[in-house]
Structure formats: C-alpha cells, structure tokens
Amino acid sequence: MSTPAYRIGLGHDTHRLGPNRALILGGVRIEHDRGLLGHSDADIVLHAITDALLGALALGDIGELFPDTDPANKDTDSRVFLNKALQLVRARGWSPVNIDCTIHAQRPKLASHKPTIRQSLANLLDLPLDAVSVKAKTGEHVGPIGREEAMSADAVVLLSRELKVES
Predict the structure, then answer these.
(1) Rounded distance between C-alpha atoms, residue 134 and residue 116, angstroms
(2) Is 65 exposed, middle or buried (0-12, 13-18, 19+ CB in 10 A)?
(3) Is the overall model pTM greater than 0.70, yes or no?
(4) Which helix H or strand E contains 82, and what residues bound it?
(5) CB 52 within 8 A of CB 64
(6) Closest to 86 measured CA to CA, from 117, 50, 41
(7) Could you read off the pLDDT of 29-75 as tens digits, one per residue?
(8) Which is nearest to 150 in space by CA: 13, 10, 48?
(9) Residues near 114 by Cβ (< 8 Å), separated by ≥ 6?
(10) Could you count the other beta carbons within 10 Å of the beta carbon of residue 33?
C-alpha cells in the first residue's frame, strides 16, 4: 500500500530594470524598453520557481547552487538553473504537482503574455497546463515596482512522491 507524501516550496526573486537588456519572464522574451539586470539572464519567474523547488526539499537556494560570483553563470539562460533544480528534485523521488506564480510589474502589462508564459512553464516543468498558474500584479505606482525600477516574482510549488507503507 502507498500513501502520498507532499512538500511545499516558496520562492521569490527581485531584479532591477535597466537599459540594453532583454526582458525574459518564464523563459519567454517580452518586448519592452528595458530588461532585468543580473549576472544571468535575470528571469525572475524561473529564479523564483527554482528557489521554490529547492526550498521544498531544503536543498538551499539558487544563489548557493549558482552563485553570481562564478563566471560560469554569467549570462546563463535561467532554464539551465531550473533544469538542475528539477534534476535534484527528481533524483530524490519527488515530482512537481502544480505551480502558482505571481509576477509583480508596473509595465509592461502582462495580461496578453500570461498564456505564453504559462505554456512555457508547463513545458519546462513537464506539467499539464491546468497545473500551472501565472498571475500579474502592478505596483499601483508605489515602491520600486510601481516606479518601474524593478520587477519581482513569487512562486509556490507542490511536490509529491509515493511512499511505501508496510501493512
């Protein structure tokens, strides 16, 4: 007989906006006059999800696995970070069940991009589309998000595995 086992992970990431950078959210390039600044491609969505996956199993965080002091991580596509975290999760017998992500950005408006981001995340995490939620919130012109100085993302992931129970 088996019973399900579950773990929940929470992730967050924030990056400043700057010129001459691509804006990439959830592995999707979005046209905008500025992009997110960071050592890698600064994809806040994938960074938050990576941290959520790692956090669910107490495996540290993205900065520990992929430090910005390591030149090998310079300009890295954040899908590499996500894939490594997924490998660690799966190697321990766990699988993502669903993901819920919120992107905080004053501009650009993300309503028309959410379906594409959602599909990208479903593909990257090997999840059905109805197990992936992407929401967008503005900063209501308050703080660094509202002043268009930065963007952030939050993510929650549920992991499961089957445990064998002796009867």
Answers:
(1) 10
(2) middle
(3) yes
(4) helix 78-91
(5) no
(6) 50
(7) 999 999 999 999 999 999 999 999 999 999 999 999 998 888 888 88
(8) 13
(9) 134, 135, 136
(10) 10
